[in-house]
Design a protein that fits this description.
MetI-like fold, flat, about 210 residues, mainly alpha, 8 helices
Amino acid sequence: MIEWLPPLLSGLLLSLQITAISLAIGLPLGLLFAVLVQSQSRIVRWVTVGVVEIGRGAPALVVLQFVYYGLPSAGITLDDIPSAWIALSFTTASFTSEIMRGGLEAVARGQHEASSALGFARGDAFRFVVLPQAMRVALPGLLGFAIQIFQATSLTFTIAVPELLSRAYSIGASSFRYVEVLLLAGLLYAVIAVPASRLVARLERRLSRHLA
């Protein structure tokens, strides 16, 4: 089993890279969605709500399959890893937009009024006053979702991305020892996900005491 570790660790590294890129793209896009959902323009608001609800309602696996297999019929062909980035980024943006919107709405109305009274422009008030407070509220939820996206990278084996689960299946196919290699792959997922979950829980408790 020791000889399985190098390819599995290589797949784990790719899973982490896909997670990082999906979050780097999806979180800013999710913030944009959260802001647009609160737009005064009814058209902008409802179009954004429609996009978010589609992203939240469609399973990540369906989005992956659509990007990789569906877009070529429209003349857009992407390789496996970029397809994973785009699909998981869209899923990230759709779900985290609601988390961020909740954080934005949790900021007291008086903070907006105080910023206006101090002469802040609307954009500066949002960036320096509202957004930091909203992110403090949303941070535990965002970190928890980041763990879910890391676990969702296992779905990318369906579009031939050589991540951790794909490497485990390849080893199982050549050695016929699926149970052992999948258990080892599951352990590697847990090595990342379990400590991260504990850190998120600790952070949430600390923020809850602070907000209280």
